Amino acid sequence: MRRFSAIAGSAAFFIAAPCVVAGLVPWLLTDRWGLPWSGLPGFAPVGGLLIVAAGAALLHAFGRFSLEGLGTPAPVAPTERLVIGGIYRHVRNPMYVAVLSIILGQALLFSSWALVAYAAVSAVSMGAFVRLYEEPTLSRRYGAEYETYRRNVPGWLPRLMPWRG
User: Considering the domain boundaries, does residue 88 fall inside one?
Assistant: First the structure.
């Protein structure tokens, strides 16, 4: 896939997936954007910081797919190369971790138990998708390279020191 096509495809998928899952659905669930932020001490700033940091990580992860992998996160237009640089040296599923962090950041920002429950349901769904579809697909597509990466980089809780494989 050409670089421009990879960037355009990733941008389209970014709007179709993470923006809906971490933006539109939480907004519809809470209808809180018009209401005041959390009154609990520290919740609003911590939630805001989590949203900003996770948003930056999400954009970085999408960029790696386009520039390093020459593809998109969408299953219909996968990468040509296994993406293991940047944030992917710390965690195998940074997009999912970032989306869940954005949802949890909003839960803190608005003191919303509905968003905590939505994050839990989303985490189970994402975990099942990774286990049942992504990991077997990546294993078939990239073979030993993916298995080495998988053994050395955790799927969900980032390692502090980047993997240098």
Answer: yes
Question: Rounded distance, CA 108 to CA 42, Å?
Answer: 9
For residue 77, with 0-12 CB atoms within 10 Å meaning exposed, 13-18 middle and 19 or more buried, which class applies?
Answer: middle
Residue with tokens 């954005």: 102
Distance in angstroms (rounded) separating the CA atoms of residues 77 and 54: 24
Domain count, the chain: 1
> Could you list the residue range(s) of the whole structural domain that residue 100 is in?
3-152
pTM of the model: 0.91
Q: Which two tokens stand for residue 66?
A: 């386009």
Calculated CA dihedral for residues 146, 62, 28, 114, nearest 10 degrees: 50
pLDDT band at 85 (very low <50, low <70, confident <90, very high): very high
